[in-house]
Design brief:
InterPro entries: Dimeric_a/b-barrel (IPR011008), EthD_dom (IPR009799). About 25% of the residues lie in helices and about 30% in strands. By secondary structure, the protein is of the alpha+beta class. The chain has two domains: about 1-95, Alpha-Beta Plaits, CATH 3.30.70.100; about 100-185.
Length: about 200
């Protein structure tokens, strides 16, 4: 199973509310006509904070090899045309995401409008961060997840890791030496139900 993430900024002149509405009501159903995911979550930022993006999208792909042929043809043109209506396409950042094992088990389905906090971290020693996040996960009653990011290209990412915290209580987290929290963000998760994902047809490419 391959997971990737994308930092999705809204198009200039578009409100965050309109961005979210278009994403959920138009873009997600459009994508599910062709793209098969085993899990698909959009974390929409809340409040007035402006970190340079408005949604952290998470994609668990059934078969990543399907994406290239689809995006190279008419499907890709259709998706790009729709993205231009609400996304600042030149400033999208995407990365592979390696989910650390914090002992929390498989990530369950999130009911829509599930609140969480996202901590964006910069650093290099992944082992020390995983150890610190594991200790945090053991101490918290709510779920904790850590994604270690791998860039697709030479462009620097906004962060090197994302710590996702459901519920309250991240104030006790102290990053290990060499790591810095560059942003603390409130978000609401919208996840496509598994039964909806199961309806996406096999791609004809």
């Amino acid at each position: 199973m391959i997971k990737s993430i994308a930092f999705m900024p809204r198009r200039p002149g578009t409100s965050r509310a309109d961005f979210r509405d278009h994403y959920e009501e138009r873009h997600v159903p459009l994508a599910l006509n062709w793209f098969r995911f085993s899990k698909y979550v959009r974390n929409h930022l809340q409040g007035e904070v402006e970190p340079g993006f408005d949604c952290l999208s998470e994609f668990w792909r059934v078969n990543p090899a399907e994406i290239g042929p689809l995006m190279a043809g008419p499907v890709g043109e259709t998706m790009a045309e729709d993205e231009r209506r609400f996304v600042d396409k030149p400033n999208i950042q995407a990365a592979l995401a390696e989910t650390a094992d914090l002992g929390c088990g498989a990530r369950p389905y999130e009911a829509n409008a599930s609140p969480k906090r996202l901590l964006l971290l910069q650093g290099s020693d992944r082992d020390t961060l995983v150890a610190a996040a594991t200790d945090l996960a053991r101490a918290r009653a709510e779920r904790t997840a850590l994604d270690l990011l791998i860039p697709y290209d030479d462009r620097p990412l906004r962060c090197d890791a994302i710590l996702s915290l459901w519920g309250a209580g991240d104030d006790a987290f102290a990053p290990p030496a060499g790591w810095t929290i560059v942003a603390r963000l409130e978000a609401v998760a919208e996840e496509t139900p598994p039964e909806t994902l199961a309806k996406t047809p096999q791609p004809a490419v």
